[in-house]
Amino acid sequence: MDWTAGLQGLVGGVLIGLSAVWLMATLGRIAGISGIVGNLITQRPKGDSAWRGAFIIGLVSGPLLIMALGGGLGNVVGHPGEVIGSPAGGVGLMLVAGLLVGVGTGLGSGCTSGHGVCGLARLAPRSMAATGMFLLTALMTVYISRHLLGLGGGV
Amino acid sequence: MSQSNKSNWMKTAAGYAAGLLFGLGLAVSGMTDPARVVGFLDVAGAWDPTLMFVLGAAVVTTFIGYRLVFKRPAPLLGGVFQLPTKRELDGKLLGGAALFGIGWGLSGYCPGPAIASIGGLSLPLAAMLVAMVLGWFAAKRLAP
Q1: Are B77 and B114 in a shared domain?
Q2: Residue B1: pLDDT band with limits 50, 70, 90
Q3: What residues in A contact B34, CB-CB < 8 Å?
Q4: Nearest CB to A31: which of B22, B53, B122?
Q5: How far is C-alpha A60 from the chain's CA centre?
Q6: In this predicted structure, what is the pLDDT of residue A1?
Q7: For the segment B67-83, what is each residue's pLDDT rounded down to a tens digit?
Q8: CB A136: neighbour CB atoms within 10 A?
Q9: Do the beta carbons of residue B36 and residue B50 sit within 8 Å?
């Protein structure tokens, strides 16, 4: 097992948790990315958009800051010094996946952050059910594509 | 600067700080690498436990932090705590989560890492982001 990767996972996870706590403490909001960004784009809520836009700029600038520091703090598999990994497939696969992620998080009112991090921390039954469901279908999808259909790393 | 302008700037700055912390967390943990995510989901292959550490640490930190935050009557910068109040497990929640999981498994991207990876933009990632936004509009149409 790769202990350095696991340790970086713990540190990164704490930072993500601190972000969620900070957002609730200051603005009273759940740190759910699909909600923050999705509602900004589809509704442009008046008087409630600026912090969402600023959140997105912050989200993008985090990895850029790590890159500017030399990338040594990145945790890309097999590429020390890199911060952002390559996509797991081509344009066609990403169009399908993106549509599923958008429709799914829209209908299901949340993603890995809103349900997975904030919802589980609140012990919310809906978030526990949603997290169990998306983990299950994600595990099944990877099993079917990699091991039954034999589509390797590149899908 | 007027009082309300000042408060708006502070809210925007607080939003930026939250996003920055989140982006740093995703980068340091390796969640900006789809191979890490798919490696976690590939339990029958060379399993990569990293995501379990990320989610575990994030949930425990948030669990403890929320308890401290909710001792206060209201958020520091005004307004109220906006928490979901729905309790029932309906088809929309579970069906949506199921579809999301398929897309997540195919790409290794959930919304946070996909957006946080814009600094390393590639054609497939751009396709992912555009389709995700279209998906959000479609969900709004399907179930307003």
Answers
A1: no
A2: low
A3: 85-88
A4: B22
A5: 12
A6: 61
A7: 999 999 999 999 999 99
A8: 13
A9: yes
| Residues of B with Cβ-Cβ distance to A94 under 8 angstroms | 107, 124-125, 127-128, 131
Rounded Cα gap, residues B97 and B84, in angstroms: 17
DSSP 8-class letter at B140: H
Half-sphere exposure of A152 (CA within 13 A, CB side): 0
Structural domain boundaries, residue B109: 85-144
Nearest by CB: B112 against A2, A5, A112: A112
Contact A104 B101 (CB under 8 A): yes
The answer to whether residues A38 and A24 belong to one domain is: yes
Smallest CA–CA distance from A113 into chain B, residue: B112
Contact B54 A22 (CB under 8 A): no
| Residues B16 and B72 occupy one common structural domain | yes
Domain count along chain A? 2
pLDDT tens-digit map of B81-104:
999 998 899 999 999 999 999 999
- Is the pLDDT confidence value at A115 over 60? yes
CB contact residues (below 8 A), chain B span 2-61, against chain A:
8, 11-36, 38-39, 41-45, 48-61
Interface predicted TM-score (ipTM) of this complex, two decimals: 0.96
- Domain edge (last residue) among B66, B83, B100: B83
One domain for residues A78 and A146: no
**By residue range, what is the domain housing residue A113?**
87-155
The confidence score (pLDDT) of residue A154 equals: 45
* Closest-approach residue (CA) in chain B for A97: B103
Query: What's residue A71's pLDDT?
Result: 87
The count of domains in chain B is 2
Q: Which residue has the higher pLDDT, A102 or B7?
A: A102
Could you tell me where the DSSP H helices lie in A74-124? 91-107, 120-121
